[in-house]
Specification:
Blueprint lengths: L2 H22 L3 H6 L1 H15 L7 H35 L31
Helix pairs in contact: 1-3, 1-4
């Protein structure tokens, strides 16, 4: 394994572990901030791998495990976001298909929904 490949692999593993920690804490802002560095680290890893050098199998296994954890945590983040969106949508009153009219044929004013706040924290 070349020095460049070892460095690229270490950098990628560090970023994936950081992203995993952010996702586990449901800190989506921190996880999203790691997207570009992770893409850059993947590119560096791919470039270093093109020379025919093989990574150390133990290091590769650790990176693979971190990547599998990352997949699980990303799927969980998607489920959490879907749940939040469904909660917000359930709180919004449905729109009537047809406009309502008052007895004098004027359009009725739409009923206002009371303001509400949603705070979701893990």
């Amino acid at each position: 394994m070349t020095h460049a490949l070892a460095d690229a692999m270490k950098r990628l593993a560090t970023i994936v572990r950081s992203e995993n920690a952010a996702l586990a804490a449901l800190d989506f802002t921190a996880a999203f901030a790691l997207l570009k560095p992770k893409q850059d680290a993947i590119g560096a890893f791919e470039a270093a791998s093109k020379g025919g050098a093989r990574p150390d199998e133990a290091d590769l296994a650790r990176l693979r495990d971190a990547a599998l954890d990352n997949t699980t945590l990303l799927e969980r983040a998607i489920r959490v976001q879907r749940s939040v969106i469904e909660t917000v949508l359930a709180a919004v009153p449905p729109q009537d298909a047809a406009p309502r009219y008052c007895p004098n044929a004027a359009m009725a004013r739409a009923r206002r929904t009371a303001p509400m706040t949603l705070l979701a924290r893990a």
